[in-house]
Amino acid sequence: MKVLKYAAFALGGIAALLAAVVLYVAITFDAAKLKDELKRVVQEQKQRTLDIEGDVDLSFYPNLGLRLGRTTLSEHSSAERFAQVDAARVSVAVMPLLSGSLVVDEIRIEGAYIQITRHKDGSFNFSDLLSDDSDDSSPVRFDVAGLKLSRSALAFRDEASGAAHQLEEIELSLGKLANAARGKLDLAAHLKSTQPAIDSRIVLAATYDYDLPAQRYALDDLSVRVDGEALDLQALKATLGASRIALAGEGQLELQKLQLDAVATRDGEALSAKLSAPAVQLADGALRGGDVSVSARLESKARAADLALQFKGLEGSAEEVKASGLVLNVDARMNDATVKASLQTPLNVRIDGPAIDLPALDGTVDVAHPALPMKTVKLPVKGALQADVGKQTAALDLATRLDDSQIKLKLGATRLDPLALNFDVDIDRLNVDRYLPPAKADAKPAGNADDTPVDLSALRDLNASGSVKVGELQVSGVRMTNVRLTVKAANGKVDVAPLSAALYRGTASGALSLNAEGNRIALKQTLADIDIHPLLKDAADKDLLEGRGNVSLDLVTAGGTVGALKKALDGSASLKLRDGAIRGINLAKSLREAKAALGGGAAAQKANATEKTDFSEMSASFRIKDGIARNDDLTASSPFLRLAGAGTIDLPKSSLDYLAKVTLAATSKGQDGKSAAELRGVTVPVRLYGPFASLDYKIEFGDLVKDAARAKVEEQTQKLQEKAKEKVEQQVGDKLKGLLGR
Question: What is the pTM of this model?
Answer without folding.
Answer: 0.68
